[in-house]
Specification:
The structure holds two protein chains of two kinds.
Chain A lengths: L21 H5 L1 E2 L13 E13 L4 E13 L3 E5 L6 H6 L9 E9 L2 E2 L5 H7 L4 E4 L3 H4 L6 H12 E2 L2 H14 L5 H4 L9 H13 L5 E5 L7 H17 L3 E6 L2 H7 L2 E6 L2 E7 H6 L4 H9 L19 E2 L20 E10 L8 E11 L4 E5 L6 H8 L5 E8 L2 E2 L9 H4 L2 E4 L13 H13 L3 H14 L16 H12 L6 E5 L7 H18 L2 E6 L2 H7 L2 E6 L2 E7 H6 L4 H9 L5 H18 L4
Parallel strand pairs in A: 4-10, 4-11, 7-9, 9-10, 16-21, 16-22, 19-20, 20-21
Antiparallel strand pairs in A: 1-8, 2-3, 2-5, 5-6, 11-12, 13-23, 14-15, 14-17, 17-18, 22-23
Chain B lengths: L14 H8 L32 H5 L4 H11 L1 H21 L48 H37 L1 H16 L2 H19 L3 H9 L1 H13 L1 H14 L3 H8 L4 H38 L10 H7 L9 H28 L9 H22 L1
Helix pairs in contact in B: 3-14, 4-5, 4-14, 5-6, 5-9, 5-10, 5-12, 5-13, 5-14, 6-10, 7-8, 7-9, 10-12, 11-12, 12-13, 12-14, 13-14
Classes of the chains: A alpha/beta, B mainly alpha.
């Protein structure tokens, strides 16, 4: 066990691990290594009583309190918890990446070297070399003005004496390792030229560049689409076999945890509430919070799995790449709440930027009282449809009818009666409320504008609405920044329901919320839907959520509807290959079932020969 | 879950709901954000990724305006600027009088000459504090420099405020319209702005100043009109300068509007049926107020020096009016013999411009949500030691 002091004089030659590149064995390491070689199964990280405090308003605020855990090489430790539980801060304190007003105390030993309280000079030898980090947003974590290849080379040449050509060779090897298509070509690409998944692969390659002993993955897949997430998780699982690094996986997604983790630490409000193996946590959770967390996660297939399917299928599937789903026959006596007939939606021309058509040939019918789930990945055009339905975007082609009213080419002045009948809940509750208005005014705005109510009558209506979304009446005088995410989204729902609309568009209303908050908001949403009976288009990327809420599901891909049908048919027997892939990529919070699904998914990808 | 279906449920009962999710009737922990008393409700969204940790603790129960104000009054430079500017304004307004009310200084007609006393040197003594006959000295024909400087400050402040208001109105209107409507309106307004920007302000001011002085004679206007123009020359100058100085503000307001109009709360207002006017005035403008206030303040500071510069060049304020810049210009020849005639107006220009700049700086910091007070290392160490102390005491007590 060489201590860092003995390495001080002459830089020693790093011994590469089996999975590493031959280049690294000959390269001279500039940075000091800690603790020599690591074998699979050695305890490499010992964390004892690690606390993280923040200085806020003349006092210390505890973000993480007395964490203790061990980590073995080749093992994946998942730290799960909701936002604010201190999971990220406790991990970042290991490499001294706390904000200025933060301070870590306690002990964290990488091999035998104390990391807490290390000077910045010493830390620079550790960062990227012994411990590296995969960040959440690959777009913001990669520097947009340098090529991705350069950024990997930079990491290498910071820690090794290496010729540029050697470093490039190693970088291309790494890019091959993380399965970047055409690595030699991609070496000279800039981050914006790669897709989100590829960017995350580059981040991983960069993190693995110096054969680190410890890899901290901070929500590595949260910003990615579910199918891409599946691929990244697959890659990380394969890497586990090939490199000996220990991985700390920070996430709030129990599905991802089920897919990856050997051991799990559950955190709440800075405290570790439970610590155990994956099997223990998922199958025999002891702490009530862990149980609640597991119960809050919507579980795909939990609603419909057991039911028998009728022989006659109602699902409509599109034929070919450029075709949409035909319009389904509805009951002619019912006026649909929303009817899209061969609709195309365009983002209008902006200066020299030409108009962009985001949705093509959309045929969709939503009957009164129906909840239709609209799913698809980012960029598939699902939000576009939602915005067109409330006339925030013009319809370029086809016919859009809301409650029997043709709004295809209505002028702004003709839209006023129409606005009374629709409501929309936006995705980001932080952005959808005016920060300068008390929330009561935000809720009351539609009432004021349409019914002309004011004064005490308006306050009464607002208070009733607040009660119906289970918030205290006094909250109407508060400002959005004072409320939590869940509370803000309730306000958003209250505003959308202010005029008791016949059609509600819910645009990913829970995707910005923590799972337990999401569970409560979804429950509230179901109750309100049952009470008011509005028709609803529920837009989401999360199939499990949609499955919970909707009677029918419409699947979108690249601006086309590819499959529309009753929820249970779509979930248990998807017809379109894209729907099949989408469904198989959803991780479920159950390690055993997830393993089965993973194999199924690999089979589907094999069969469809999909490379993305 | 049947008991939860009633919307009349009050939030205070909600912990039950959370516990039902957990399948535990007697829930040991409470994760419901609504169950916390109203004052602590903001905690949930406060953390994550290190930024904004504990922010909610600082802003509990305050409106945005109150938060900005509390940050502003913590800014030492800005508070100093406020105090200095207030004192200067108070001194000049009370000594020479304003709005038709005479002031306390015995020489109210600042242009009246008198006997040169004691070689015209200043009689101001700081200890023991006495003003004497002519605290800031006299010029060669015996005019009282104190009266001149105080009147000059009034002129400078007037120019500053009027210019600020005019530039503010035009800048915000142009910026708001082009940022909100984009397209052709934006192109037209912004090209016009570009045109105004190309005009050099000093030359413009000079030409306009000249015009005001000569136009009445050329046009043969009546004596009354000419006299009214002469008397209100500083006001007219301020208006003219305001008409060319709005461009910077217009551009900033436009870019602010371009970002804000894409925010979801604007869409929400549109879905609610709000008119364009309502969206601009009620939803976007209040959110752009930070940029507007900060830049108007800084522009006003620049206006003080600009007026001084123009007057110094002889294009600005003319006799019988008096301004600080004009005083400096008039007495530049006296620099060697009677330096006080030069120093006093100069000192007040610096004081005013500096205080306003500090105030503007303070406002910018107060409106910028990213500004955070980072405590000094010493403060943090002290608090840490305190905590450790407490802990050992507690441990001791437990034993």
């Amino acid at each position: 066990m060489t201590s860092e002091a003995t390495n001080n004089g002459k830089p020693d030659k790093a011994k590469s691990n089996e999975g590493g590149s031959p280049d690294l064995t000959t390269a001279v390491r500039l940075s000091k290594t800690l603790g020599g070689e690591v074998n699979r199964g050695d305890v490499i990280l010992k964390v004892r009583d690690l606390s993280v405090n923040f200085w806020v308003n003349n006092g210390w605020f505890t973000a993480a309190d007395k964490l203790s855990y061990d980590l073995k090489a080749g093992e994946v430790l998942a730290i799960v918890g909701e936002s604010g539980s201190g999971k990220t801060q406790s991990a970042m304190s290991l490499i001294g990446l706390l904000p200025k007003n933060g301070r870590a105390s306690g002990s964290a030993k990488l091999k035998d070297t104390e990391l807490i309280g290390m000077s910045i000079n010493q830390l620079q030898h550790i960062r990227g070399n012994e411990i590296s980090v995969i960040f959440q947003e690959p777009m913001t974590a990669l520097n947009p003005v340098y090529t991705v290849g350069f950024q990997i080379v930079e990491t290498l040449r910071t820690h090794f004496v290496m010729a540029p050509s050697q470093a490039k060779k190693r970088a291309i090897e790494l890019m091959t390792l993380v399965e970047i298509p055409d690595p030699i070509d991609s070496f000279d690409k800039f981050p914006h030229q790669l897709s989100g998944g590829q960017r995350q692969r580059i981040m991983i390659a960069q993190a693995l560049a110096c054969d680190p002993k410890l890899l901290i993955a901070d929500e590595p897949t949260t910003a990615l689409d579910v199918t891409v997430q599946g691929e990244i998780l697959k890659l990380m699982r394969e890497l586990r076999e090939r490199v000996t690094a220990a991985i700390i996986l920070i996430t709030h997604d129990m599905g991802v945890v089920a897919d990856m983790a050997d051991r799990i630490v559950v955190m709440k409000d800075g405290q570790v509430v439970e610590h155990g193996t994956s099997d223990e946590i998922f199958n025999r959770p002891e702490h009530p919070y862990t149980r609640q967390l597991l119960d809050s996660v919507p579980h795909l297939g939990s609603v419909t799995a057991e039911e028998e399917l009728p022989a006659a299928r109602l699902t409509l599937v599109s034929e070919g790449e450029q075709a949409g789903v035909p319009l389904e026959a509805g009951d002619p006596s019912v006026t649909p709440a929303m009817l899209m007939e061969d609709v195309a939606i365009e983002y209008p021309k902006q200066g020299r930027r030409p108009a962009f058509r985001a949705a093509h040939h959309i045929n969709l019918r939503v009957d009164p009282g129906d909840v239709v789930g609209l799913v698809g990945e980012s960029g598939s055009g699902k939000t576009t449809i939602g915005r067109a339905a409330v006339a925030l975007l013009p319809v370029a082609e086809g016919k859009l009818t809301i409650n029997g009213r043709d709004v295809t080419s209505a002028k702004p002045s003709e839209l006023k009666p129409f606005r009374k009948e629709v409501g929309i809940v936006f995705q980001d509750p932080g952005s959808s409320l005016n920060p300068r208005l008390p929330v009561g005014e935000s809720i009351g705005e539609p009432i004021l504008l349409h019914l002309g109510l004011g004064g005490s009558e308006l306050s009464k209506r607002v208070e009733n609405l607040l009660e119906s979304v289970q918030l205290p009446r006094a909250m109407r005088n508060r400002y959005p920044h004072e409320l939590s995410g869940g509370q803000r989204q309730r306000i958003g729902i209250a505003r959308a329901l202010a005029l008791q609309p016949k059609l509600l568009i819910a645009d990913e209303p829970t995707s910005a919320l923590d799972v337990s908050v999401q569970a409560r908001v979804l429950k509230l949403f179901q109750d309100l839907q049952a009470e008011y009976g509005f028709a609803c288009v529920f837009i989401s990327h999360d199939l499990a959520v949609v499955e919970m809420l909707s009677q029918r599901i419409a699947v979108m891909r690249h601006g086309y509807l590819v499959e529309v049908g009753p929820t249970k048919e779509i979930v248990s027997d998807p017809q379109h290959p894209y729907t099949q892939r989408l469904l198989s990529a959803v991780p479920v919070p159950d390690p055993a079932e997830q393993k089965r699904r993973r194999e199924l998914r690999d089979a589907i990808i094999e069969e469809q020969h999909i490379v993305s | 879950m049947s008991t939860d279906d009633k919307p009349e449920r009050t939030p205070a009962e909600e912990p039950e709901f959370g516990s039902q999710l957990g399948g535990q009737p007697d829930d040991a922990i409470d994760v419901d954000p609504l169950a916390t008393p109203p004052g602590e409700a903001a905690d949930e969204a406060a953390f994550g990724r290190g930024e904004g940790v504990g922010d909610s603790k600082e802003v509990e129960g305050l409106s945005q305006g109150q938060i900005v104000w509390s940050r502003f009054i913590r800014h030492k430079g800005a508070m100093g600027g406020m105090i200095v500017l207030g004192l200067v304004a108070l001194l000049s307004l009370t000594s020479m009088g304003a709005f038709g009310i005479p002031g306390w200084w015995r020489i109210q007609n600042f242009n009246s000459s008198g006997n040169v006393i004691n070689g015209a040197a200043p009689t101001l003594k700081l200890w023991p504090f006495t003003l004497g006959e002519h605290p800031f000295g006299q010029d060669d024909i015996g005019r009282d420099n104190f009266a001149l400087v105080m009147k000059g400050i009034q002129t400078s402040l007037l120019v500053m405020v009027v210019l600020g208001i005019i530039a503010l109105l035009i800048g915000v209107a142009v910026g708001a319209l082009s940022g909100y409507y984009r397209g052709k309106i934006d192109t037209a307004l912004m090209r016009f702005t570009d045109l105004v920007i190309t005009l050099p302000v000093i030359v413009m001011g000079a030409v306009l100043g000249k015009l005001i002085n000569t136009l009445p004679d050329k046009m043969g206007w009546s004596y009354d009109v000419t006299q009214a123009i002469r008397d209100n020359l500083p006001l007219l100058l301020a208006i003219m300068l305001g008409l060319v100085l709005w461009t910077g503000l217009a551009r900033l307001v436009r870019s602010e509007f371009l970002t804000l109009r894409e925010r979801e709360f604007v869409d929400a207002a549109r879905v609610a049926g709000a008119s364009d006017w309502r969206i601009i005035s009620k939803h976007i403008l209040p959110n752009a107020v930070g940029v507007i206030i900060v830049n108007t303040t800084l522009m006003m500071a620049a206006a003080v020096t600009l007026e001084a510069a123009l007057s110094f060049l002889g294009f600005g304020v003319k006799a019988p009016n008096v301004s600080l810049g004009m005083l400096i210009s008039q007495y530049q020849g006296a620099f060697a013999t009677r330096p006080w005639l030069f120093w006093w107006p100069g000192l007040f220009i610096i004081l005013i411009a500096l205080s306003i700049n500090f105030i503007g700086d303070g406002l910018r910091d107060a409106f910028d949500p990213r500004t955070k007070r980072i405590p000094s290392q010493r403060q943090m160490n002290k608090a840490m030691a305190q905590i450790l102390n407490d802990n050992t005491e507690k441990a001791g007590a437990a034993k």
